[in-house]
Amino acid sequence: MNKKKFTYKKSGVNINAADKFVNFISTISANKRGKKKFSNIGGFGSITNIPSNIKQPNIVACTDGVGTKIEIANTLNKFDTIGIDLVAMSVNDLIVQGAKPLLFLDYISINKIDHKKLRAIIKGIKKGCDQSECELVGGETAEMPGTYEKGKFDIAGFAVGIVGKNKILNKNKIKKNNLILAIPSNGLHSNGFSLVRYLIKQKKINIKKNKFLKSELLKPTKIYVKEIMNLINKNLINGCANITGGGLSDNIKRVIPDKLSANINLDKIKTSKIFNWLKNNEISEKEMLKTFNCGVGFCLIVESKNIKKINKFFSKKYRPYVIGKIYKGENKVKLNGSINWL
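Request: output the structure for the sequence above.
Response:
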């Protein structure tokens, strides 16, 4: 009588496929000089030296994902940019505290190992790490049959940064009459995609055939690390905010001292085509400001005397411009005027 043999592979998990993917990751993960493979890939944990040139080093850690932007990637069968998004969502938070990104780990959970898809994602993650000047030191890939539908997956990331005690950007550095500068975004970044997808569904739009949306929806989140670290090293900023979910109001409020407030002039904001398209498709300005960055990906809080020096560190596309001011008040963000939607 033959006995039925049960195997992990028959349950839907292919260890050999996962091992091959780990080997691929090790071939593209290099140290900062790019001369050799990072030796910890495939181990139980990642080991990284703490830079010796930082006085009184403090560790800063962030974690995030890219939300339902992955569903747009699935629809368009394009996975080479969401890895950049994944890195950006964590490292752009690290620099708000003044921390230089040091290392990054990813977590990918998927219904079934798909090498082509996973390789594209990992290449994007590596590209995001290169842009952030940090190391991809490892991660985890979990094959989870039954948890995800066919072709579905999720990704999350974890970043660690380091900052000297005297370089930490804390609320106390922000003063009355400081100016608030907007740094342009690269489109939607990685927020508000559930609303975007709902609108597309209700309007019965086929994004595969819509040239404009096809080019806009998967634009990767701008990584602001190099520019912001230069400003921090030159002591040119008092504070900053990453404009993600919750928009301008919620994110700027998080970095302002209790006895100060912010006044934002919405009519100064420069939007881009994707936000104007959304606004013109029956989304109110209030909802736009609460859900999207509306063209402002990152904000700086600075002294007016430093603006010319600050601008030297940015390309024309991402050059900061004044949208508001800090004033005495009880920790609130006042939005004045209205965005000039096209």
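Residues 31-38 have pLDDT under 50 and may be disordered.
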